[in-house]
């Protein structure tokens, strides 16, 4: 579940260029710039519920800001024997939703432990630093350089910005392979944009929601064995809000569904 938030996290869910690694923006640069501007809404707040079969596992809370930063809080519900997870993720993005650096920590007993990812464009590296914190927002009391990742280009995605990057491309007809860093490993996330419009039913809305389907895959393996194929459904409007997502982990198929939102004058678009 934690890695989905980072992958969706593209959502996701929340997602003729195959093999290039980086999408070419020249033919539709103006359209994509407008799409990115429509996606980014200062203070956008989205809450998702994660479920496995009929069992509700927990929530993912996402908040975006005008300065191209975003954070996610991932919390399992109390009393579950299957999972006990509390995680915080923060990312800094450029105007195209590529990562400029990120921070991810998980609660382990009485402390918080995780990684900071620090970009070093001059050397073509992403430096990883292990950190320990006494609580979720306190400064690290321990910081140790762990390793560096050589990246083919500094235009890469971290786990959280994967949830924002595909929102600008759902009107395109491209397959994009994008370098992705998850859990200290470099791989590739593939988004298959075909403009496939459909509807999805979610509990928070009475009518079916108009969505655009975006399947994809990731080669990076995360916690609970999350890897391989995933599918995201994004609202069929300029906001392209992730509505629903599905992915596979060790325990089986996991579903992530929008249950609450706060975005001025926006509601999920519904079928007539």
How would you describe this protein?
With 272 residues, the chain is mainly beta. The protein has a single domain (2-94, 156-262), classed as Clam (outer membrane lipoprotein receptor (LolB), chain A), CATH 2.50.20. The protein has two helices and 16 strands. The protein has a 16-stranded mixed β-sheet that branches. A hairpin with a 2-residue loop joins strand 1 (45-52) and strand 2. It is globular and about 55 Å long. The two termini are 33 Å apart. Residues 1-27 have low confidence and may be disordered.
Any chance you could write out the topology, listing elements then pairs?
Layout: H1 2-7, H2 29-39, E1 45-52, E2 55-65, E3 69-76, E4 86-93, E5 99-108, E6 111-120, E7 125-133, E8 142-150, E9 157-158, E10 175-182, E11 185-192, E12 196-200, E13 209-218, E14 228-235, E15 242-249, E16 252-262
Please describe the structure with a list of short key phrases separated by commas or semicolons:
16-stranded mixed sheet; 2 helices; mainly beta; outer membrane lipoprotein receptor (LolB), chain A; 272 residues
In a nutshell, what does this entry contain?
The protein is mainly beta and 272 residues long. It has helices at 2-7, 29-39; strands at 45-52, 55-65, 69-76, 86-93, 99-108, 111-120, 125-133, 142-150, 157-158, 175-182, 185-192, 196-200, 209-218, 228-235, 242-249, 252-262. The radius of gyration is 18 Å and the shape is globular.
């Amino acid at each position: 579940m934690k890695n989905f938030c980072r992958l969706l996290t593209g959502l996701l869910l929340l997602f003729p260029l195959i093999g290039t690694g980086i999408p070419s923006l020249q033919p539709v640069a103006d359209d994509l710039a407008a799409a990115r501007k429509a996606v980014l809404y200062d203070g956008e707040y989205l809450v998702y519920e994660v479920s496995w079969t009929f069992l509700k596992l927990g929530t993912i809370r996402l908040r975006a800001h005008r300065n191209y930063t975003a954070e996610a809080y991932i919390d399992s519900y109390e009393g579950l024997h299957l999972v006990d997870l509390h995680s915080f993720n923060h990312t800094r993005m450029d105007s195209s939703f590529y990562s400029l650096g990120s921070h991810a920590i998980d609660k382990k007993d009485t402390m918080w432990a995780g990684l900071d990812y620090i970009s070093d464009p001059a050397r073509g590296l992403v430096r990883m630093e292990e950190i320990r914190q006494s609580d979720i927002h306190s400064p690290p009391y321990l910081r140790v350089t762990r390793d560096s990742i050589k990246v083919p280009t500094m235009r890469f995605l971290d786990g959280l910005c994967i949830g924002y990057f595909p929102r600008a491309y759902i009107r395109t007809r491209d397959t994009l392979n994008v370098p992705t860093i998850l859990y200290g490993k470099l791989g590739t996330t593939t988004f298959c944009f075909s403009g496939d419009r459909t509807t999805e039913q979610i509990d928070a809305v009475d009518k079916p929601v108009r969505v655009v389907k975006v399947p994809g895959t990731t080669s990076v393996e995360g916690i609970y064995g999350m890897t391989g194929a995933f599918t995201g459904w994004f609202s069929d409007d300029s906001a392209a809000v992730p509505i629903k997502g599905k992915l596979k982990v060790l325990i089986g198929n996991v579903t992530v569904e929008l249950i609450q939102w706060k975005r001025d004058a926006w509601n999920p678009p519904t079928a007539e």
